[in-house]
Amino acid sequence: MKHTISVLVENEFGVLTRVAGLFSGRGFNIESLSVAPTIDPSISRMTIVTSGDDQILEQITKQLNKLIDVIKVIDFTGQDYVEREMAMIKVTAEEKTRAEVLRIVDIFRAKVVDVTPRSFTVEVTGAPNKINALVELLSPMGIKELVRSGPVVLGRGPKAWRGTD
Amino acid sequence: MKKTGSKILLECLKLEGVDTIFGYPGGTVINIYDDLMDSPIRHILTRHEQAAVHAADGYARATGKVGVAIATSGPGATNTVTGIATAYMDSTPLVIITGQVPTPLIGNDAFQEADIIGITRPITKHNYLVKDVRDLARIIKQAFYIARTGRPGPVLIDLPKDVQIDTTTFAYPEKVEIRGYKPTYSGNLRQVEKAVRMILDARKPVIYVGGGASLTDASDELKEFAEKIQAPVTTTLMGMASFPRKHPLSLGMLGMHGTFYANMAVTNSDLLIAVGARFDDRVTGKAATFAPHAKIIHIDIDPTSIKKNVRVDLPIVGDLKDVLKKMIQKLGNSEEKLSETVQETSFWREEVAGWKSQHPMSYKSSESEIKPQFVIEKIRELTADDAIITTEVGQHQMWTAQFFDFMRPRTFLTSGGLGTMGFGLPGALGAQSAFPDRQVIDISGDGSFQMNSQELATLVQYRLPVKIAILNNNFLGMVRQWQQLFFNRRYSQTCMELPIDFVKLAEAYGATGLRASTPGEVEDVIRKGLETPGPVIMEFKVSREENVMPMVPAGAGLNEMVLAS
Ligand SMILES: Cc1ncc(C[n+]2csc(CCOP(=O)(O)OP(=O)(O)O)c2C)c(N)n1
Asked: Which of chain A's residues have a Cβ under 8 Å away from the Cβ of B178?
């Protein structure tokens, strides 16, 4: 089963390696990982998508918490949260497919951010499922290159997770 | 007044109460070694950096204090790796200082540069690269704090040469503030109450003790707890000395080479109380059939130990001393129910006693050959209860665990988790340097001894009177045993074909060498060895193909124990 965890860490060099090393060293799986500083510049926030049964997930959260540089681990499994991912897709745009690409982009409320006679680069944000769907629809046109940010998440409601509480 | 990084380091060590450090000099720590000449801290020069870390480890295991080792960059640092991993697996509190090339050169493949931070990341509790001398005091303070609190472990500080030379005003922080590190010490009372209820309802309880009991010095609480509920106590290799072996409730060690009765008790128990143990595979055998009828209470300071290998019915995260004290107190509130329980469980203690008399720990004695177990028993007979025993890894280690009846905490120092051959001699060196007046004995095999035999020089130089008992079977005995039992007696590369004259080797270093070749000589050699001042090698030519029994074959359940080979 898939799980999304947010990890608040000290914004210091080597922390990413510690977290990544923990996953690889213990055979845990990382499907995606994104990281950037938070509003408090001394803290970075990682969003990790991983998979495994409950026991594995329990170990992952405990092991993460055990790292000295990890300030907080939030497992969003079973919670209400907003999840967004961004992708950029470079699609082949031949004479006869250009209109179709633009139509699909429009339906998905995506944006064309770069145009050449032979390609479009499409930017889209949304839940990972939405991006999957867009990718699927654009595939027949010929996807030349694809980059995804991996999802980031925030819990719904007024409660906020910060490093200091 | 401003101070150099190097002076700050030594000042901080002093403020942490460090009296002895173990190490080996080199280019990137030469400033520290220079300042060491003006410091009250005693430095012991081992003959290998691995041994320096093992010695610091032995010192820490024997005293409960943080052990400190120091090495130069590159090869000095990489030589510490096995020592650090050994300490990490057994949760020993250590601070290791390594020199590093100057910060502008880091990453350039400079002379004697190694990324020791990267290399030791998975085998330290935490590590630091100091990039600015102004961070140094804080980092050292944190390193000692992290090493000794929570589940202890080694912390490495990598100190570039320019940072040792740079100066800053020195102030040692009074408090440690690490927002990501707050170990839980106090056991949850509700969980404790639940545990007490489970104990009062149990009819076949067993207490299973790991290394945590020694790390937290919880032996007294453990004894009081066990006596109060009258439950038999089995220990892991690491828990061994935390519960007196001659106590009527003691079952000795469980697991692969555990006693028949300990393994039977665990297999038949209805409540297993795990105290600072981590259900290692050498303990559980096949995890699926481990303690199949038991509810499991698991008390540990490290939440990651809980539910890692086996299911747990009631976890209690906290310091063992605290949790055991609370349990004893809560049990005290239910005296009536407790005495009823103790009565109701008497048949269980009888059942366990039955297993004990059915298959006590034993071996076939011999008139003609020296049995290794006999040597262990004799050493036990002739040493004080507070003698510190270290071992290497192999058959001799298991025989020591099986036949040396440990009575006092922190008297048995052995590499349990990593199983490092070569730990025992430098480990003994470290313990002896902390306790110059106690008997310290390394029980060794001929194979393991040669992994760090150079430390004889250190023992002689510093007048550390460690006694080394080599059970010489001219084999890498433990591996040979597996080859005999599981590989059709094909002894591939386990026969130590070159006979070593260990007596002469001892003499070459200026130590004393003694040898026993027949059973009749054993006692004399031990007596003489213990009486002789200074380091002594006592070599015992033991029967070569003796096996450690009982044995649970790897992957089998504890109830599938083989009693004799
Ligand atoms: C550093 C290291 N290398 C290899 C091993 C694997 N190993 C475990 S026991 C053993 C044999 C030890 O032989 P010896 O020290 O003579 O003791 P004995 O078993 O004969 O008592 C070996 C090679 C180990 N534990 N540690």
From this structure: 68
Residues of B whose CB is below 8 A from A70: 180
Residues in chain B predicted with pLDDT less than 50, given as ranges, are none
- Contact yes or no for B564/B493 (Cβ under 8 A): no
The predicted model scores a pTM of: 0.96
Parallel, antiparallel, or unpaired: how do β-strands A119-126 and A111-116 relate? antiparallel
Q: Single out the residue of B324, B272, B263 nearest to residue B294, CA to CA.
A: B272
Whose C-alpha lies nearest to ligand 1, atom 3? B421
Tell me which of B90, B415, B421 to substitute to probe ligand 1's pocket, judged by most ligand atoms within 8 Å of the beta carbon. Answer: B421
Residues 6+ apart with CB under 8 A from A117: A93
Chain-chain contact of A25 with B122 (C-beta, under 8 angstroms): yes
Query: What's the confidence (pLDDT) of residue A159?
Result: 87
Ligand 1 atom at minimal distance to the Cα of residue B476: 13
Question: Are residues A163 and B129, on separate chains, in Cβ contact within 8 Å?
Answer: no
B190 touches chain A (CB under 8 A): no
Report the Cα–Cα distance between both ends of chain A, in Å, rounded.
30
What CA dihedral angle connects B213, B214, B216 and B220, to 10 degrees?
70
* Residue-wise pLDDT tens digits, B25-71: 999 999 999 999 999 999 999 999 999 999 999 999 999 999 999 99
Closest-CA residue to B68 (of B373, B79, B80, B78): B80
DSSP structure class, residue B465: -
Q: Which residues contact A95 (CB under 8 A, 6 or more apart)?
A: none
